[in-house]
Each structure stands twice: as structure tokens, then as C-alpha cells.
Amino acid sequence: MGGYENGDSPAGGVILGVDGGTTSTVCVCLPAAMPPPESPGAVPVLSRAVAGCSNRNSVGENAALETLEQVMMQALTMAGKDHSDVIAVCLSVSGVNHPSDQQRMLDWIRKLFPVHAQFYVENDAVAALASGTMGKLHGCVLIAGTGSIAYGVTEDGKVARAAGAGPVLGDWGSGYGIAAQALTAVIKAHDGRGPQTNLTREILRKLEIASPDELIGWTYADSSWARIAALVPVVVSSAEDGDEVANKILHDAVQELAGSVVAVVRRLTLCGEEGADQFPLVLVGGVLEGNKKWNISGEVIKCISEVFPGVHPIRPEVEPAIGAALLAWSHHHKELKLENGS
Amino acid sequence: MGGYENGDSPAGGVILGVDGGTTSTVCVCLPAAMPPPESPGAVPVLSRAVAGCSNRNSVGENAALETLEQVMMQALTMAGKDHSDVIAVCLSVSGVNHPSDQQRMLDWIRKLFPVHAQFYVENDAVAALASGTMGKLHGCVLIAGTGSIAYGVTEDGKVARAAGAGPVLGDWGSGYGIAAQALTAVIKAHDGRGPQTNLTREILRKLEIASPDELIGWTYADSSWARIAALVPVVVSSAEDGDEVANKILHDAVQELAGSVVAVVRRLTLCGEEGADQFPLVLVGGVLEGNKKWNISGEVIKCISEVFPGVHPIRPEVEPAIGAALLAWSHHHKELKLENGS
């Protein structure tokens, strides 16, 4: 790794952090020589670029790689830099699940930048975790948006995940899962299998349809998971207004989400052998946004703390792309320290 | 309806029964002048033709109508008849759910046959019911194959259905529902959210994959519901071998299926005001085939009989297309009797 003097990064060198998702892809550019970031407000972002989907399972590998290259080059240009200034990159991309996915991306990105640069390829949950821990890879992250996943990392690099298997495979705590349960409750109330619920009136109003019979056609007209998940606010407001069916759906979702965190924490012994150590839990995603009367994330934390009282909840103040960049930054500075024996 | 002498059908006249499904479409041709069928073996089938999918939601309206026309003309040719011999037709087609679907099909079929012929357009559940009641429209049918639905009709023509809303909307008693729960149980055992189960070994062996991690890719590689439902026999054999998780999945499915029948019977008062009258329950579909040690249909009937002791289970001995033809036959003969004042 030679070539730097004074055990420090070259003055003009930069670090890229990429958060690649199914909806959009964000790349931020940070100066490699910045001091350790003490607070979210202190991160000196040089530039930020946005592009479309980079999930290879959604748009195919070529299109995904093209998007990633484009967003990184745009961020460099915006910062007045070029590819030769790049010292480290962290790509945190959804759809990267297997070591083989990781290896293929590493082989690809090495060809874009100088030979001495460092590269890290991770699942997008890793950037979400780092966005809450300011780049330190330790603890658990719970993401609950359209989908849901719990992902944990120990200080010595062991990882574990739970849920995140999509709607067919039981992600009932996700936005999709909550909304699908609500739609099912409307169908069951209509055909006599379940209790009456205000969800019927509220969901029909929201979708501007006249009868539960039309829900079947609406549901299968489009296979987008996000379109179903967009009904979560209707479920939350119905629960807040006292609807028992909506309340049960949210309580069940809380159990599912808490259960996925507990499984990860247990497998990684994140809470120590006695089960009482503190560990960070980063909470991310629309379902966990906590400014509602029916506080889903608050209930999830309460459930987890009954098993692991050391849970320390964190809501990230920076976006996942910055989490990815901080991850690359701290990996890079650890390497520098090792090389300089400090 | 004039033109027939002796209050009987013309000697060469025929009746067509069509069972239109998502996998295949079957048309049978019966002589209109046949006597009332006393037993399944006594139905004098003149011809039987088979074609592909006629579910308009799957292949589009034009392709569906083309398939239906083709299969009817083929059955007529095979019976040595032509369109002018047709006296009555019953089309019982999946994907026909709304009165507007029915009306459009009636308008279409009227142009294919003589003006004096009679036409009936129904959902495919109706033919399944008629296949068990030998053409009499009264009682309830429970279909559980890839999907599931309970459908009932009263003697005075009131109808009700429950379930049948597909995998997103809670058809957990269907083959798809049972198999999706089993796949979920494998994922949960693997990531620490659920108990260990033999389903893991059995499903991985059946799918020829090495690890539960690969199940996610397998599941979303193809959106066919039937491909998931094909795992039901693995769940049944695991339950028969004593696996608790598999047993719970089947018991839950039994509750769902029984619940859908109970909802229909209750709404239609099929069991009389006191709840004790006899009513026929026709059982159709792969999930309800009763020659296994773990007897799903037997358990469903037991559950229903606890609420409605008058349930009279029937396993059809003829196929749904014959059910559709018998329906057209009995409608036609009722009309004849009315006209002749008998």
C-alpha cells in the first residue's frame, strides 16, 4: 500500500460511498484526509449524485453496473475530481447476497480505479447499519420499509441476518406484510370469515374503489410490492382510531420485527454471554418512523428489551450512502494505522 | 322456445358443457334427449375435446374466447354434429367473477349458435359443484388445488363465495398457501426465528438445492403459483412422519378451509334456520384428495360438522365439464317442462 507519506492520505484523495437500492442509487464523495467524524453534522460531504435502480435482481447485472459507474463518475465530477483521486470505495448494494455476487462486483470495480485503491462490496443493510454507528461495523440494524430485514455484525466480523426473504417467505413485519394482512382482513370481513373492520371503509376510500370485490382485481393488476406497502399509513391511522383488527395486525408485525432482531442478536451473542451487554440497534425505514401516535418502533424496542435489556436504539442522522463512505473511510484509516505501526 | 314437438328435445340435438381453467379447457358433448342421469356411469358422453387456457385474466379476452370456440367446435365434430345441433351450452370458466364478465360472454356465445339455443355462463366453481350433485345447483363446493375457494348456491338461486382471493389476499388453505408456509418455516428455522423442522431436509432434497439461503432465489425466479403448490406432498409426508411444524401448517390449513365453508353455509342458511338441515358439500382439488394417511379433507369435514352436523360430503365421480353439461341439461329440461305445463 506504499506511496503515501507521513502515514496519511494524499491531500486530494477522496472516498466514495454508494447506497444502491431498487428505487434509486446515491453516491457521496468525502475527502480521505478528513478527521474522524465526531457528529453527523461534521461530515464534510464534497458532492452527492443520484441515479436509478442498481439492484441486479431487478434490472439485470449490466444495467446495474452501468448505473453504479455513472453515479460514481458524476459524484467525482461534481467534486472536481477524477478516477485517479479515488482511494477507497464502499458499494453497499441491494441484491448482493452471496459471496459470488460480492466477488463479481469486486472484480468489476477494480478495473475502474487506481490499483492501490481499496474496495468494499456489501449488502445495503451494511450501509444502513454504518449510517447509525458513524462507520463502525458493530451491532444490529433493523430495516422495515416495503421489505424488512435484521442484519448484525460483531466486532470480529461475524455476520447474521434474519427475515429479508420477501413477501412469499414470511416477511410479515414489512410494510408489504402489514398491508397484505390489512387487505386480507377486508376480504375476510366481506365474505364472512372475519370480524368487521374500519379498514374496509378506509382502504376502499384510499384506493377509490366501491366494493371489496374489486380489491382482488386491484391487487393482481400490478405486482409491485411498494404499491401494496403504500397502504401502511391507512392501517396505522385505523389502529390509532381504535380499530381492533388494525391493532392486531400492527401488534403481530411488532412481534415479527422484534423476533428477527432477537434471532440475530442471539446468534451473534451481541449482548454478551450473560445477555445483558449493551449493543447498538439502528432503526431504518418507513414502518419504523416514530412520529406517530401508534409508535411501531417504540413497541419493537420494548419487545426486544424484555429479552435483551442492553438494546441501545439509534435513529441515523445521515443517509446510508454516507454510512457506506464512513465505512470505507474507517477501513482505510485502520489499514494506514496498521501499516505505520500506530 | 317453440319448434319442438312432444315437449321433448329434437332427436339429434346436443348439449355442451365446458370447464374452462387456467391450465386447460375441457368440452363434453351429451345428447339433449338423454334421460335424467341417475348415476355417474350412466352419463352418455358423445365426445370430449381438450384445449389450453381459457382464463381471460391469464391470456387475455381474445385468446380465451378463441380457445373456447375451438374446443366446442372440436367436440361437435368429434360427435358428428355441427353448430346447428346445439340446444344448450354451459360455459363454466375461471376468471369469470363479475356480472359484466358474464354478460360479455353471453353476448359472444349467442352469435355462435342457433337463436333458440340456451346459454349459461358461470364461474368454474359452479361446474365443480354440479359435478358432485349430478347437475343440481344446491349446496356448497370447496375447491383446494393451487388456489382455494368455497362457493355455495341455494335452491332459489342465491350465491355466496369465500376465499378464492389468491395468495396475496390470504388463501392460506390452498396448495400455494400450505407450501408457502412450509417454505417460510424453513427460512425461519435457518435464521433462528423458528423451530427446527424436517421440512428443511425434505424441501431442499425435493428442489435439489444445497442450502436454505438458495430458497430465496428459487422462490422469486418464477412467479407461477402452481410451482410453489407442487410442494404440498412434501408437507403432507413430513407431517405423516411426525414433524410438528408440518403438522401445524396442515392443521392451520384445515381451519382456513373449514372456515371458508362455514362462512358460505352461514350466509346462505344452507343448513336451515335451526342449523341442522342436511346440505351437500362437494370436495374438489389435489389438496382434498383423501387417500393419504394425513387426511386433510377428513379433518375439514370433521371441523365443519362440529358447527353444521348436516354436512353431507360428496366426492365427484365425473369431471367438472360433465357437471357443466348436466347443469345445461337440467336447466333445459326445466324450461321444457315449464313450457309444457308439466
In words, what does this structure look like?
Two copies of one chain form a homodimer. Chain A has 342 residues and is an alpha/beta fold. Chain A folds into two domains: 14-134 and 318-340, 2-Layer Sandwich (Nucleotidyltransferase, domain 5), CATH 3.30.420; 167-314, ATPase, nucleotide binding domain (Nucleotidyltransferase, domain 5, 2-Layer Sandwich), CATH 3.30.420.40. Chain A contains twelve helices and ten strands. The first copy, chain A, has helices at residues 56-59, 61-78, 99-110, 124-133, 175-191, 199-207, 213-220, 225-229, 232-240, 244-268, 296-307, 320-340; strands at 14-20, 25-31, 47-51, 86-93, 118-123, 139-144, 148-153, 159-163, 279-284, 311-314. A five-stranded mixed β-sheet of chain A has the order 3-2-1-4-5. In chain A, strands 8-7-6-9-10 form a five-stranded mixed β-sheet, with helices on both faces. The relative contact order of chain A is 0.16. The A-B interface holds A 57, 97-98, 160-163, 165-170, 180-181, 183-184, 187-188, 191-193, 213, 215-216, 219-220, 223, 228, 259-260, 263-264, 266-267 and B 57, 97-98, 160-163, 165-170, 180-181, 183-184, 187-188, 191-193, 213, 215-216, 219-220, 223, 228, 259-260, 263-264, 266-267.
The oligomeric state of the chains shown is homodimer
Unreliable stretches covering 5 or more consecutive residues of chain A: 1-7
How many angstroms separate the termini of chain A?
Answer: 16 Å
Shape of chain A: globular
Largest interface: A-B, 35 and 35 residues
- Count of alpha and pi helical runs of chain A: 12
Secondary-structure element pattern of chain A, one letter each: EEEHHEHEHEEEHHHHHHEHEH
What is the CATH homology-level superfamily of the largest domain in chain A? Answer: ATPase, nucleotide binding domain
Strand percent estimate of chain A: 15-25%
The total number of structural domains of chain A is: 2
Structural class of chain A: alpha/beta
Widest sheet, order of strands of chain A: 3-2-1-4-5
As a percent range, the share of helical residues of chain A equals 40-55%
Biggest sheet features of chain A: 5 strands, mixed
Which fold does the CATH topology of the largest domain in chain A refer to? Nucleotidyltransferase, domain 5
Q: pLDDT average of chain A, as an integer? A: 91
Domain ATPase BadF/BadG/BcrA/BcrD type (chains A, B): 16-328
Enzyme class (chains A, B): transferase
Organism (chains A, B): Brachypodium distachyon
Pfam family, one (chains A, B): BcrAD_BadFG
